[in-house]
UniProtKB/TrEMBL annotation:
GO terms for cellular component: plasma membrane. GO terms for molecular function: diguanylate cyclase activity. This is diguanylate cyclase. GO terms for biological process: cell adhesion involved in single-species biofilm formation; negative regulation of bacterial-type flagellum-dependent cell motility. InterPro entries: cNMP-bd_dom, cNMP-bd_dom_sf, Diguanylate_Cyclase, GGDEF_dom, Nucleotide_cyclase, Rev_trsase/Diguanyl_cyclase, RmlC-like_jellyroll. It is an enzyme of class 2 (transferase). Residues 55-122 form the Cyclic nucleotide-binding domain. It comes from the Bacteria.
Length: 327
């Protein structure tokens, strides 16, 4: 950054500076700004901020400002500062060194104003104070809008990473995130929580006979059965491969067994189409039901449902098994 002149020795006018637009006291402002240096930046050159904050007004060329690079908040957003516009107001007002990375997009001349002089200008000129407030308000709105966009995007990707792409059911990451909390809530409030582990029967044979794409379609159909047969407060998860899980908050084992029986029946009635013309053979599934016991953790609950599922398979598949005989 090279010192090439001062505001007083240059041809620039107060009317060239947006912050002083509509100034009624241009002469007084010009006198105060006269000793301020005009610095020249080569293209791609960055402004190396000292610990002292400055306000920079672009006189010629353009600056690129990337937000908060040193605080880890950078998100690739870059603002372009054109002639007449300023950067560094906030740094001046809160007396912090500028955390933005400021780089010249082309050869650029900037007016450099020290923080103490900015305060003096604010004291002297209501017009400048008003312009500054308006500018800051605009910047805050823009920052808020950007924050909202970022939050929405973050939530979108978070949701996406929790959903299984093939079946649209929740995936294992979702389960790992949510099940411990659900178990802790149920234990803490002494309300029941039941879990049904579901495994499609002879699915390898289905795949081998009808092809993997038809197998995918069968998985979607099975997921659809779960989705359409549950209460809005229940959750269906693709646990892995052809294994699915249903979580039933506030549900006793007796009711969970009845739900599993209903799912089993609907599963065997569901039609799988590989295309819209010919339905494939029906699929069936085996179901293992478990309900949370006092002191039990989520791993043990899953293991209990798994053991019940194993028994359902051993009993000939296409049926429901559970840990305890419902009363
Ligand atoms: N099409 C398809 N198949 C899958 C997917 N994930 C797992 N599988 C298949 O599911 C089959 C599971 O086979 P096994 O674990 O032997 O169980 P099974 O044939 O269903 O037998 P049982 O569970 O004992 O009734 C394997 O052939 C896997 O390739 C998937 O996303 N799409």
């Amino acid at each position: 950054m090279k010192h090439i002149s001062t505001f007083g020795a240059s041809d620039y006018q107060i009317s060239d500076l947006q912050l002083l637009r509509n100034s009624t006291d241009a002469d007084a402002m010009a006198r105060l700004l006269a000793p301020c240096p005009i610095m020249r930046l080569a293209a791609d050159e960055s402004i190396a901020e000292s610990q002292i904050a400055h306000l920079y007004i672009v006189l010629r060329g353009a600056l690129a400002v990337a937000t908060d690079t040193r605080t880890g908040m950078a998100d690739g957003t870059i603002s372009k500062i054109l002639p007449g516009e300023s950067v560094g107001e906030q740094a001046v007002l809160d007396e912090e060194a500028n955390l933005n990375a400021i780089t010249a997009l082309e050869e650029t001349d900037v007016l450099m104003i020290k923080a103490e002089l900015v305060w003096q200008l604010i004291d002297e000129s209501h017009v400048l104070a008003r312009n500054l407030l308006r500018l800051l308000s605009f910047r805050i709105r823009a920052a808020n809008a950007q924050l909202r966009r970022r939050q929405k995007l973050g939530e979108f990707y978070r949701q996406l990473s929790m959903i299984d792409g093939l079946t649209d059911l929740y995936n294992r990451s979702w389960l790992n995130d949510l099940l411990p909390t659900m178990v802790a809530t149920a234990q803490g409030s002494h309300v029941p929580l039941s879990l049904i582990m579901i495994d499609l029967d002879h699915f390898k044979r289905f795949n081998d006979t009808h092809g993997h794409l038809a197998g995918d379609q069968a998985l979607r159909t099975a997921a659809g059965v779960l989705g359409s047969a549950l209460r809005p407060t229940d959750f269906a998860v693709r646990y892995g491969g052809e294994e699915m899980m249903v979580l039933l908050p506030d549900t006793s084992e007796k009711v969970a067994v009845a739900v599993a029986e209903r799912l089993c029946e609907r599963m065997r009635q569901a039609l799988v189409f590989s295309d819209m013309r010919l339905p494939l053979p029906h699929i069936t599934a085996s179901f293992g039901v478990a309900s949370l016991q006092p002191e039990q953790d989520e791993q043990s609950l899953i293991a209990q449902a798994d053991a019940a599922l194993y028994r359902a398979k051993a009993q000939g598949r296409n049926c429901v098994a559970w840990q305890q005989t419902p009363a």
